[in-house]
Amino acid sequence: MKRHLLRESQGKHMTTTSNNIDASSQGEEVARQNEKHSRSLWEMSESEHFVQFYETDAFLLDSLSGFIDTGLAEGGACIVLATKAHRESLEERLKSHGLDLAAAQTQGDYISLDAAEALSKFMVNGLPDPERFALVFGDMIMRAAEGRHHVRVFGELVALLWADGKRAAAIRLEELWNDLGKLHPFSLFCAYPMHDFGSEVYEAEFTEICNRHSQVAPAWQPLWSPPMMRLLVKPWLASLPVGIARQSCCLAIAHKKP
Q: What's the domain count of the chain?
């Protein structure tokens, strides 16, 4: 009987140990996958299309300055299509980080354009014209890419359209960016303020926006996190179920920390 109890105890110990090993292995695998994903965010080399939802300008600028800083440090070109306020605040941060902004602009490494002015170059009757869009930004990205590691673009064009009530135009523009990414390799960082999604009326459109991005960052997590925070950034959209559940999850991850 004692031997039976000993064997039973040993069996329980082995089972517990096995379960601990399995759990540990699963945890290590999850960590590896997260690290692989975060590394892909940090060290981009092909076309990517991200979206950052945000509640404050300071939060957006924290995420954006990391995106631009890293791109320039890697020998890439950065194109910023933003409002005057965001461009000025971003440039102040970049200068405080030691960037010689004047030299970067002269060399063509840093290109800054007003978002509203950029929209005027390809909008026709309230909608983005595909040919004009491809001509304007295809040429810009090609020229920026010459002799450089990679091109990164930050764009608030879609956010301006959305805020102006032009929902269909904003979603169409997201699609045109994706089409352009098939012709020219570049990484695109979009951003939307969460106050523009305050009503359930926009749940379907919100999900459409998420669907048109390769990565979605909620309003509590900077997409461009520092190295120690990168494991918190996950491929949110890829793990979401389709349909109504996906819409609910999209809104939940945008507003709340899990």
A: 1
Tens digits of per-residue pLDDT, 66-82? 999 999 999 999 999 99
What span, in angstroms and rounded, lies between the C-alpha atoms of 60 and 62? 5
> Among candidates 204, 213, 191, which has minimal Cα distance to 242?
204
Residue 18 lies in a domain: no
pLDDT value, residue 42: 43
Average pLDDT of the residues of the chain: 76
Residue 16 inside a domain? The answer is no
Nearest to 49, CA basis, from 195, 185, 164:
185
Mean pLDDT of the region 223-234: 42
Q: Please list the alpha-helical segments (H only) found in the chain.
A: 2-42, 57-73, 84-96, 101-106, 115-120, 130-145, 157-163, 167-181, 203-211, 244-255
